[in-house]
Design goal:
The protein has 259 residues and is an alpha/beta fold. It contains 9 helices and 8 strands.
């Protein structure tokens, strides 16, 4: 069984198709999916998707590109309260995004730290987004880790070797998306080669970043199998062995979900 550790099933791209999307994923060997909330006001819709299928769980957070859209700044108590739901299994996604520079860096960082505190308090994994902000992401995570450990995954990892090294050093997992299967992504695959097998997860980030042969089209959880096939071959593993390893990693990190 494979797991799609990060997708966005509530996005308009999938409207009216959720049952079919889940069926196609299961037919492709993807037995579980984590759908990610990126705005707190959308938590009810994301939760409803998770409640609709035994194969789907969800995480709650405020994406760094959305931090200025909240009616009021989310508190630690706000985030912790969501964790009471049995199918809510992660904190985020959160992090820093300087690519679009939509919101002030200090606001992004403040909300990022609130999410870290929620992960520390609940024991749920922190789901981290980093784009064009490697140094600041690494420094913030290291500083927070020194205050108290927390589980963590670098979602859709496509950053540099230094961020990989520094986040692995504090115990993070790295999750690889369809980007790692792009022909142009040899530099990223060379980083993947150096990541301990027990720290690797796979994801789609659907509806974005579809791997070959679907590149340029809408991504969906079933396609994580294509990414896993490429990465298994890179490791000299069978797809089955790679699926078994990454699924075991997923369950260690997302420990609220029973294997």
């Amino acid at each position: 069984m494979l797991v799609d550790s990060h997708c966005h099933l509530d996005f308009p791209d999938f409207k009216g198709e959720i049952p079919e999307i889940i069926r196609r994923a299961q037919a492709a060997g993807v037995g579980r999916m984590v759908t990610i909330c990126t705005r707190l006001k959308e938590e009810p819709q994301v939760r409803a998707i998770a409640e609709s299928s035994d194969a789907v769980f969800y995480a709650v957070g405020v994406h760094p590109l959305n931090v200025g859209e909240e009616p009021q700044e989310p508190s630690l108590a706000d985030l912790v309260a969501f964790a009471e739901h049995p199918r809510m299994v992660g904190i985020g996604e959160t992090g820093l995004d300087y690519h679009y520079d939509r919101w002030p860096h200090d606001l992004q960082a403040r909300l990022f730290r609130t999410h870290v505190a929620a992960a520390r308090e609940t024991g749920l994994p922190l789901i981290v987004h980093a784009r064009d902000a490697d140094e600041d992401v690494a420094a913030l995570l290291e500083e927070e880790h020194a205050r108290g450990a927390f589980p963590c995954v670098m979602h859709c990892f496509s950053s540099g070797r230094e961020l990989a090294r520094r986040t692995l050093a504090i115990g993070a997992c790295l999750s690889f998306s369809g980007v790692a299967a792009f022909k142009s992504a040899e530099a990223l695959r060379s980083i993947f080669d150096e990541v301990p097998l027990e720290r690797i997860l796979v994801e789609t980030d659907a509806p974005y970043l579809a791997p070959p042969p679907h590149r340029g089209r809408r991504n969906e959880p079933a396609y994580v199998a294509e990414t896993a096939r490429v990465l298994a071959e890179r490791r000299g593993m069978t797809p089955e062995a790679f699926a078994e390893a990454t699924t075991a990693n997923f369950h260690r990190l997302f420990s609220k979900i029973a294997p």
